[in-house]
Structure formats: structure tokens, C-alpha cells
Design brief:
about 240 residues, alpha/beta, SIR2/SIRT2 'Small Domain', 2 domains, three-stranded antiparallel beta sheet, 9 helices, 9 strands, binds nicotinamide-adenine-dinucleotide
């Protein structure tokens, strides 16, 4: 049977593609107030501003490409049973060839109808891909509601958490790439790993984790994935 690997990725895996992290110095949250452009309250107060912000994110995404770390993660599917669980809202894992990608925080290239207060109860059938197109106020879904970004805004629940937990519980190896392990609930996912699972973290920064099961490879994602595939996960 193939080894089961859950790969949890954060903003760091896309940094070498030119998509900045949000929280690091000079990151997006130094320029924008996340509560205005990426929260449910911000959306209710000024949806046009939120749409503009995500229109800009789509333009940025169009201009970048997957890097060697995304490609190495996709290539692991030839040797292992791989599930990617990403906090990222970009599509670089898919563009690199990964076939099983669970987006915890939504996807920049997708939209769905705004449902009012209980927006968590949307159906997956209503979500659709607009590629890199812009969305404006007045752009309606087939049901007549305003289109909104298919993004888990600050202040909203993370609907795919249970599926992600099940995947991590089954893994032989949990590999975390480019995450500060500070954005909950995603940051706590690795704790669901079995006691026998091996856990690796690839991140150049000193990440404050005290779990003795974690081996920290203190490198950028591209170099870290080389070390993982060539020195650790050899078949
Ligand atoms: P995060 O928790 O995702 O942390 C980013 C981590 O990446 C940091 O620990 C940093 O040391 C590390 N890092 C920086 N350069 C790296 C590299 N070259 N290789 C490997 N690791 C590297 O924090 P955040 O940036 O505050 O993001 C918060 C949320 O916003 C997360 O859900 C994140 O996924 C999302 N986000 C998504 C994107 C995207 O879709 N590309 C970009 C930025 C942020």
C-alpha cells in the first residue's frame, strides 16, 4: 500500500512564485486592513471595496506561475497517496498538477451567490469558476443574488475543517510547508496526526512549535521540498 501523506500548505509555499505572504513584514496586511477587505463585516459594509480587492488578487494570480515546491508536491503523487490541504486561496497547486487539493479558506478564482446572514450554508453546486475575470456590484448569480468571492472571510467558519481532520488522522506522514502555524483553526490540524505519524515542517522562519514529533527543515519551500523528496522520502 502506498504511504499516505497529508501536505498542509500556507502562504510560504507560494512566496517564491511572487505571491507575498500576508503577515510577514511588507505583506499585504501592512497595506490593507484585513477587516475592511477580507472580513464578513467588511463585506456587509462595503462589498464594492471587497470585490475590488479580490479582482486585484485575481490579476496578481494570473501573472504568476507554480514554483518548484508546488511541482515537487504534485510529483509526489507518483510515489504516494497524497492529499494537499491548503490555507492558500491561489490555484498554484492545481496548476502544478496536484489532483487532490482541499482549500480550507476558499479560492480566488471562484465565486458564489451571497446568501445574507447564514452564508455558511451554501451548496457546492452554486460555486463556480470565473478564472481571472473581475466581479462588480450588480453581477448576479443565476439565483438573482449578488456574486461574492468564494473565500472564507474573517468572522466566518471554515466549512471543510472536518474533512481536513479526517485526512490528517489517516496520514502516515504530515508535511507542513510555509505556514506560521498561527492562523487557526488550520494551524491546529497537525495535532490530529496519529502518534505514529512522522511530521515535518518546511519554513525558513523560527516557528514556535513545541511538539517533539515535528522535524523542522528550516529552508524555503523549494529547497525544503528537495530535501524532503531526496533525503527523507526515498522509495
Ligand atoms: P501563514 O501562516 O501562511 O505564514 C506564512 C509562512 O510562510 C511564514 O511562517 C513564513 O516564514 C513562511 N515563508 C515565507 N517565505 C517562505 C518560503 N519561501 N518558503 C517557505 N515558507 C516561507 O501566514 P500569512 O501570510 O499571514 O497568511 C494568513 C492566511 O492568508 C493563510 O490562510 C494564508 O494561506 C493566506 N494567504 C494565502 C496566500 C495565497 O493564496 N498565496 C498568500 C498569502 C496569505
Amino acid at each position: 500500500m502506498k504511504t499516505k501523506i497529508s501536505i498542509l500548505t500556507g502562504a510560504g509555499v507560494s512566496a517564491e512564485s511572487g505571491l507575498g505572504t500576508y503577515r510577514d513584514n511588507g505583506g499585504l496586511w501592512d497595506q490593507y486592513d484585513p477587516m475592511e477587505v477580507a472580513s464578513i463585516d467588511g463585506w456587509r459594509k462595503n462589498p464594492g471595496k471587497v470585490l475590488d480587492f479580490y479582482n486585484m488578487q485575481r490579476e496578481k494570480l494570473r501573472a504568476v506561475s507554480p514554483n518548484a515546491a508546488h511541482r515537487a508536491i504534485a510529483a509526489l503523487e507518483e510515489r504516494a497517496d497524497v492529499q494537499v490541504i491548503t490555507q492558500n486561496v491561489d490555484n498554484l497547486h492545481e496548476r502544478a498538477g496536484s489532483t487532490r487539493v482541499l482549500h480550507l479558506h476558499g479560492e480566488t478564482t471562484k465565486v458564489r451567490p451571497d446568501q445574507g446572514l447564514y452564508d455558511i450554508n451554501f451548496s457546492e453546486d452554486e460555486v463556480f469558476d470565473i478564472g481571472y475575470e473581475a466581479v462588480r456590484l450588480g453581477d448576479m448569480a443565476p439565483n438573482g443574488n449578488q456574486l461574492r468571492p468564494h473565500i472564507v472571510f474573517f468572522g466566518e467558519a471554515v466549512p471543510k475543517m472536518e474533512r481536513a481532520i479526517e485526512q490528517v488522522q489517516q496520514a502516515d506522514i504530515v508535511l507542513i510547508v510555509g505556514s506560521s502555524l498561527q492562523v487557526y483553526p488550520a494551524a491546529g490540524l497537525y495535532r490530529y496526526a496519529r502518534n505514529t505519524a512522522r511530521i515535518f515542517l518546511i519554513d525558513p522562519a523560527e516557528v514556535p512549535v513545541r511538539d517533539p514529533r515535528i522535524t523542522h527543515i528550516r529552508e524555503k519551500a523549494t529547497r525544503g521540498m528537495e530535501i524532503f523528496t531526496e533525503e527523507i522520502f526515498k522509495l
